Amino acid sequence: MINYDYLIVGAGLFGAVFAHEMKKKGKKCLVIDKRKHSGGNVYCENVEGINVHQYGAHIFHTNDKEIWDYVNSFVEFNRYTNSPMANYKGKLFNLPFNMNTFYQLWGVKTPKEAQRKIVEQVEKLAISTPSNLEEQALSLVGTDIYEKLIKGYTEKQWGRNATELPAFIIKRLPVRFTYDNNYFNDKYQGIPVGGYNKLIDGLLDGIEVRLGIDFFENREKWMGIAEKVVFTGKIDEFYDFKFGDLEYRSLRFEHEVLNEENFQGNAVINYTAFDVPYTRIIEHKHFEFGTQSKTVITKEYPAKYEKGKEAYYPVNDERNMELFTKYRDLAKEEKKVIFGGRLAEYRYYDMHQVLAAALKATR
Ligand code: FAD
Ligand code: UDP
Description:
Elements: E1 4-9, H1 13-24, E2 29-33, E3 44-47, E4 50-53, E5 60-62, H2 65-72, E6 85-88, E7 91-94, H3 99-106, H4 111-125, H5 133-158, E8 188-190, H6 196-204, E9 208-211, H7 219-224, E10 226-231, H8 235-238, E11 248-258, E12 268-271, E13 280-283, E14 295-304, E15 313-314, H9 318-333, E16 337-339, H10 351-362
Parallel strand pairs: 1-2, 1-10, 2-9, 6-12, 10-16
Antiparallel strand pairs: 3-4, 5-8, 6-7, 11-14, 11-15, 12-13, 13-14
Bound molecules: flavin-adenine dinucleotide and uridine-5'-diphosphate.
The site of uridine-5'-diphosphate has 13 residues, from helix 5.
């Protein structure tokens, strides 16, 4: 029996924004999620008074004032600016690649000296049009930075050679000839005061949410319960993998409570050498300038994706994009189902992009 206007599969950001907007338009929504909590990957757990980002560090950033005002209408954001450090074989470097990094690497003090150093290295390589992540990185920052700060991190993160990855992934990181350690170029940035759950709770306020329910366990029932279905899970799974499996990258998080106030002095430290098995250590209290007597850290280990594990990152290489196009073509024909979010659109979306996509879908 049809009881709802919309069934929304997935209580992550896409699902929560969609439900919120539709409720405002007077529609009746039901949100289901297979996890035991809402929020998808932005979910936080409170441990020792600290908001622990359960699925990896989440820093909100956007250039779009409309998106910034939208999230701020649910929760206040603090002034946190992401400025991670990189640890390569025991030495520390600032990220993203900027004058501080160049000074630490080469002792150069002026932008001209730094540019000269990079150009020297890049010219030797004679790469005309970068066709993969390795070539893209080498032509942006040269051999030294590539070898110390990119290659090892990238190859463990993605479980493959940097020559087999799309170039766009490395373009997420700014390269600057100023002494500026801000990881993002966007105008607005911060962390919700009190954690991301406040944002999600605000979005889902007054909406029926049922947790611990996997859509695929009773697909017919869920398809029949609403006029329309919004699906934010894996698109290949929706189509029973009929064209083949899309590749994803997974992660394993190791959370630890430490009986000390300040473990590493920064929220994010990346470990860029290949022989350290994790990519980063997050110290959560620093996102909110916490002064608790204990601290919580998370080591983030890249992991092979297998069915049953969480699919964190789409692997947007040529082979997967070709496969995805086939699924997307089927999706376009659906009259009843709307596909949205990181998994259903198979896109390396950040939060602000998911929000924008969800708002667009509701319009
Ligand atoms: P999700 O959050 O994945 O939500 C999808 C939901 O659907 C999940 O809760 C899932 O359980 C549910 N679901 C799936 N299949 C089913 C099913 N069959 N039945 C029922 N429920 C189902 N973005 C930033 O802007 N800044 C950052 O710093 C940042 N850091 C990140 C770090 C990591 C490690 C990762 C993995 C992502 C990061 N992101 C960051 C991206 C951000 O997490 C996503 O853009 C955003 O959370 C995606 O929202 P979503 O709703 O599309 O997907
Ligand atoms: N990257 C790197 N060294 C670093 C940080 C990032 O080589 O210290 C590369 C790596 O390939 C990574 C990509 O840049 O996958 C994007 O980094 P980002 O921090 O945006 O990744 P996310 O937070 O989305 O995992």
